[in-house]
Amino acid sequence: EHIAEGMKPEDDDIVTGFLKVDEKAPKIAHVEQEGTAPFDIQKKKKDIVSLVKRAAQELRKSSLDIACNRFTHTKDFINGELYVFVYSIDGICLAHGEDAQLLWKNLYNLTDWVGTPLVQDIIRTAKDGGGWVTYGWHNATKVAYVELVEKEGIPYVIGSGFYPQSKEEAVVNLVKGGVALFNKVKKDGNPADWAFSRLSYPSGSFAVGNLYLYALDFSGTIMAQGERPGLI
């Protein structure tokens, strides 16, 4: 946890070669339920794209404050659990249909529980032409569709997302988080083993149910293994 915050751990933070991890740290929520109707992911994605396209049109034709007010404080752009969010290109939240308390906060450096810089990923995806991005939100893996909308020469990021109820997206988020952790450790000038030890901690935030991470060097040597650390 110290690494994720850019802090150097003290000696008493190291136990049997692994970095301590907060046992109360959020885990990916398991949302599959027996007896429920099959989750139609293609329909959900279609609904999200339609919602974002409609919201983008609203943002273009209305003033910024009126459009963002409608996205945040009315039901006009709510479709079940789906809602719209808007960010400035530097990460300031301008509209959020789920949580108005996020308004005007700079969330550019916000990361999820595995270290994925989610707002930066959202902005980068939008700037690269728009599309789908995976990240952690409210202790679960979320998938969002985002677009870049220009208004009076200023770019804004608009999007909406859903919880996919699939392990595939959870795996994507775990791997992205592992990469983000490794890159941060190296950027801070610390040994790669600091990242590998956390990735290998069986009770840590990179082990979720039967999902875990592993890392190999290019000669095939196992550097991290979240299920069987003895293989390292």
Explain what this protein looks like in three dimensions.
The chain is α+β, with helices and mostly antiparallel strands and 232 residues long. The model is unreliable at 1-36 (pLDDT under 50). The longest helix has 21 residues, at 41-61. The chain has five helices and nine strands; from the N terminus they run ββααββαβββααββ. The radius of gyration is 19 Å and the shape is elongated. The relative contact order is 0.15. A five-stranded antiparallel beta sheet has the order 4-3-7-6-5, sandwiched between helices. The chain has a two-stranded antiparallel sheet with strand order 1-2. Strands 8-9 form a two-stranded antiparallel sheet. A hairpin with a 4-residue loop joins strand 3 (85-88) and strand 4.
Please specify the SSE layout and strand pairing.
Layout: E1 14-15, E2 18-19, H1 41-61, H2 64-73, E3 85-88, E4 93-96, H3 118-127, E5 131-137, E6 140-151, E7 154-162, H4 167-187, H5 192-199, E8 214-216, E9 222-225
Helix pairs in contact: 1-2, 4-5
Q: Helix/strand-derived class?
A: alpha+beta
In order across it, which strands form the biggest sheet?
Answer: 4-3-7-6-5
Poorly predicted segments: 1-36
Could you give the distance between the termini? Answer: 22 Å
Characterize the biggest β-sheet.
5 strands, antiparallel
Task: Give the integer mean of the pLDDT values.
Answer: 82
Summarize, please:
It contains five helices and nine strands. The chain is α+β, with helices and mostly antiparallel strands and 232 residues long.
